[in-house]
Amino acid sequence: MADVEKKAATAGKPKEPKPKTKKGLPVVPESVLKKRKKRENSRIISLHKKLTALANRKKKTREIFIRAEKYVKAYRAKERDEIRLMREAKKRGNYYIPGEAKLAFVIRIRGINRVAPKVRKTLQLLRLRQINNGIFVRLNKVSVGYFYVVLLISLSLCINPFLSVSGKQNIICVEDLIHEVFTVGDNFKYASNALWPFKLNNPTGGWRKKTIHYVEGGDFGNREDKINKLLRKMV
């Protein structure tokens, strides 16, 4: 009796269509095919991006080596010219005077106790917020005015006009950054701001006298090329 009722109940329901087959294989739904095609396209695009990035990396590496060699040749040629001019001047009994410095390295060696607000603002503009912070600065009328304000209030800074170091702004490597800073090029401001202020240590052996000028046996003031010796002690 139960079997008869079950057959009668199922007889009224429409039969579900069987999935169509092709050559004895079930047909794959369209949604599954779309997902497969999407995954395949994504894989192809990802592979293409990787190959393109690899080619660009190789091209960039080659460009970096070419630029580095060009900078080395330019620096050596400039050094040879300086030596040649010095020798020629010596032969003629004259003195060779190099061009005015364009680059300075500034180090803050004192705190802010009893410092006027104008000097504090100047230190903020120079990004010298902590003791022993150092930055590269382009020497011009404005920067020299900053140094005058700071030195006038007896806040110690060390200036090096003759410091020697052998994308978007066409700076793609460390060599470009060093070249831009060393030559004080058109993108010097961008290159200088890209560098954080250098955090140096106290010099080996300590300071002599921070409140006395360097020419009087102290520490603050313009050391010219003598600051290289100080930097070696502070690195």
UniProtKB/TrEMBL annotation:
The entry's keywords: Membrane, Ribonucleoprotein, Ribosomal protein, Transmembrane, Transmembrane helix
Residue ranges annotated for the Large ribosomal subunit protein uL30-like ferredoxin-like fold domain, each copy included: 104-144
Region (Disordered): 1-28
Family recorded in the similarity comment: Belongs to the universal ribosomal protein uL30 family.
Source organism superkingdom: Eukaryota
Organism: Diaphorina citri (Asian citrus psyllid)
Membrane-spanning parts: 145-163
Bias-annotated ranges (Basic and acidic residues): 1-19
A GO MF term: structural constituent of ribosome
A biological-process GO annotation: maturation of LSU-rRNA from tricistronic rRNA transcript (SSU-rRNA, 5.8S rRNA, LSU-rRNA)
Annotated InterPro entries: Ribo_uL30_ferredoxin-like_sf, Ribosomal_uL30, Ribosomal_uL30_euk_arc, Ribosomal_uL30_ferredoxin-like, Ribosomal_uL30_N_euk
Name this polypeptide is given: 60S ribosomal protein L7
Domain Large ribosomal subunit protein uL30 N-terminal eukaryotes: 28-98
GO cellular component: a single term: cytosolic large ribosomal subunit
